[in-house]
Amino acid sequence: MKTALITGITGQDGSYLAEFLLEQGYRVVGMQRRSSTETVGRIAHLLDRIELVQGDLLDQLSLIEIVKQYQPDEVYNLAAQSFVPTSWQQPVLTGEFTALGVTRMLEAIRLVKPDAKFYQASSSEMFGKVREVPQRETTPFYPRSPYGVSKVYGHWITVNYRESYDLFAVSGILFNHESERRGLEFVTRKVTHGVAKIKLGLARELRLGNLDAQRDWGYAPDYVRAMWLMLQQDQPDDFVIATGRTHSVRRLCEIAFGCVGLDWRDYVVVDPLLIRPAEVDLLVGDASKARAVLGWEPTVSFEEMIERMVDADLRFLRGDGAPPGMVGSPPCASDRPAAS
Ligand code: NDP
Ligand code: GDR
C-alpha cells in the first residue's frame, strides 16, 4: 500500500484528493495546522479512513518529523494562503506560506526521503498580465498579486530542486477549479451561495467587484485526478490543467441566477471596494500537453458545475441533504428577509 502525504487536506482540493487516493487504495496522511476551532468540515466524512497529523508550512522541523514518521511515497503540497485579495493585506505571511513553505517541504524530502514524489500546487495566477492566449507551459509569467508572485517562486523552486537534486518534483499549473466545497469568498461559490440566499428570501442583493474578469473555470474533482496522474509518469514534468474555455464573471452571474429563474441584473451590485489593486483580466489555458501525455480530460462543463453548485447551496441553506464536505454557515439572524 502506497502512502500519500497531503498538506492542505482541510481545503477544497485536499478533501477531493484524499477521497480520490483512498479509492486508489492509498494510505492517506493529512497534515493539518493547529487551530483553536474545528477546520475539518470538508473531510468530516473521511475521518475514519485518513490519518491527520499536526504540522505547519511555517515550521521546518514539523515537516521533517512528519516525513520521517510516515515515509510517504508521494507528497502533495496543496497548503497555501490561497485567496488573492488577502495577499495584498498579508503579503509577507503569504510569501512565508505560499513561497517559502514550498522550500521547507522540499528540504524535508531532500533530507529525509529523496525518493518521494512531490507535487506542487502551482497556479494560472502566475501568468497574470496577458502575454499569450491561450496560456501554456511555455508562456512567460507576469504575476499581478503577492499571491501570484509567491506561486512563481514555488514553481521555480520546485523546478530547481528537480534539476539540482534529481528529485521527482513536478509543478501542476492549474487554472481555477471550483465545486460545492469551494470557500465562500471565491467568486463562483459567492455567486451560487448568493443566488440561493436570494431565491430563499434570505438576501436581497449580491455585491461583487470586477464583472469583466474572465476565467477558465473547471470542476475540482477532475483537477485532483490530474495531480495524481502527474506523479504516475516515468519522468517528472510540469503541466497546465485547464478546460480551454473562458467566461466572464458577468456570464457566471447570468448562468447562476438563470438556474433559479432570476435575472442577475435585478440583484447584482458592483462594489468598488471589491475591485483589486491589480487585476488578471483574462485566463484561458491550453492543456494539450496534459491531454497527450497524461490522457487527462475534464468531464464536467462550466454550466453543469454552476448548476450543481446552485443546487447544492439551495439544499445546504434549506438544511436538506446537501452533498458531503460543504462549508459555510447556515442562515443566521442577520440575514435580511427579502420582503422587509
Ligand atoms: P483552500 O484555500 O481551500 O485550502 C488551503 C489549505 O491550506 C487549507 O487546508 C489550509 O488549512 C492550508 N494551509 C494554509 N496555510 C497553512 C500553513 N501555514 N500550514 C499548513 N496548512 C496551511 O485552497 P484550494 O484547496 O482551493 O487550493 C489548494 C492549492 O492549490 C493551494 O495551494 C492553491 O493556492 C492552489 N491552487 C488552487 C486553485 C483553485 O482554483 N482552487 C488553482 C490553482 C492553484 P486551514 O484549513 O487550516 O486554513
Ligand atoms: P482567483 O479567484 O483570484 O482567480 O484565484 P476568485 O474567485 O477570488 O476571483 C476570480 C475573479 O473574479 C473577480 N471578482 C470577484 N472575486 C471575488 N473573490 N469576490 C468578488 O466579489 C468578485 N467580483 C469579481 C476577481 O476580481 C477575479 O478576477 C483563484 C484561487 O483559488 C487561487 O488560489 C488560484 O491560484 C487561482 O484561482 C487560479
Automatic annotation (TrEMBL):
Family: Belongs to the NAD(P)-dependent epimerase/dehydratase family. GDP-mannose 4,6-dehydratase subfamily.
PANTHER family xref list: GDP-MANNOSE 4,6 DEHYDRATASE, GDP-MANNOSE 4,6-DEHYDRATASE
Job of this protein: Catalyzes the conversion of GDP-D-mannose to GDP-4-dehydro-6-deoxy-D-mannose.
InterPro entries linked: GDP_Man_deHydtase (IPR006368), NAD(P)-bd_dom (IPR016040), NAD(P)-bd_dom_sf (IPR036291)
Record's protein name: GDP-mannose 4,6-dehydratase
Region span, Disordered: 321-340
EC number: 4.2.1.47
Keyword Lyase listed: yes
Keyword check for Lyase: yes
MF GO annotations: GDP-mannose 4,6-dehydratase activity; NADP+ binding
Key words of the record: Lyase, NADP
GO BP, one annotated term: 'de novo' GDP-L-fucose biosynthetic process
Reactions catalysed: GDP-alpha-D-mannose = GDP-4-dehydro-alpha-D-rhamnose + H2O
Originating species: Thermalbibacter longus
NCBIfam families recorded: gmd
Cofactor: NADP(+)
Record-annotated NAD(P)-binding domain positions: 5-309
Origin superkingdom: Bacteria
